Amino acid sequence: MRQVTVDIAGVRMGLVFDRDMVPVLPDDSFLDNGHAEIPLRVHFGETPPPMTERHRLFDSGQLWALFESEGKYVIQNDTLDSGSAPHTFFLLDPDFQSGEIFIGNALSKEKLPPDPLPYPLNQVLMILLLSRKRGVLFHACAIDDEGKGYLFLGNSGDGKSTTAKLWFDQGMTVLNDDRIILREKDGEIWMYGTPWHGDFKEHSSKGLPVQKLFFLRHGRQNSFRAKSGVEAVSMLLTRSFPPFWDKEGMGFTIGFCHRLVDKNPCRELTFVPDDRMIDFVRNV
Predict the structure, then answer these.
(1) Which residues contact 258 (CB under 8 A, 6 or more apart)?
(2) CB proximity list for 71: less than 8 A, separation 6 or greater
(3) How far apart are CA 21 and CA 114, in angstroms?
(4) Which of 66, 101, 130 is the last residue of a domain?
(5) Which of 66, 99, 101, 223 could potentially form a cystine with 92 if both were Cys, beta carbons 3.0 to 4.6 Å apart?
(6) Which domain holds residue 218?
(7) How many CA atoms within 13 Å lie on the side-chain side of 50?
């Protein structure tokens, strides 16, 4: 068997393969040869054991569904009501410390194995793992301005990719323009890049403490308004990927957002999409 460790925001998943093969992975900058805390055995060209019991937890209605079966959490790449046969399944043990991945596509000698962490199951898996007191995945762009971490949260159309390009063109490091993971470390909130970028493809696997936090909004001039308390927490939650199906996970996510607001001043940033934004943010 062969193992590849994928490290995203310090969450180390070990992909264990039955054969000596090199799978197709979208971004090798998140690969590591070190110890993995969560082993995931990958089965290519196989189907999972029969699952007679299915307790529905969440169904996207389109791309994926989450259910419980015989004590395991199962993510499949299709809605439960589609009538078709999904070909990818993630099976996680109840403690989320190990699991299996089944990809039913038949392999031929001429074809490389498919990505063992395909969209959108990869992000659903991360949401599940983070919900166990590890952190939260956000709709956000993050910038490393020579060691200073700026976090820009926003929903679709708020300007995350535009912001990423502005800072990148000035030589700054973009962690990601669309998906950022926040975790607590040494009493601080850290932000980490992920492989799941939006329209702007530059990204990084690094992490650093959040120094400034903004909620993005397009406008005719650069300005900001302070946000605090319940309003700021609500704005964070609407820009996060919370585990709606899990009471414990939701409790952690809400508590994390409260601690984030307590540790980092929050501001709604109205910005004009040109270089003036950069100096404005630096001087806030």
Answers:
(1) 233
(2) 93, 94
(3) 11
(4) 130
(5) 99
(6) 136-283
(7) 1
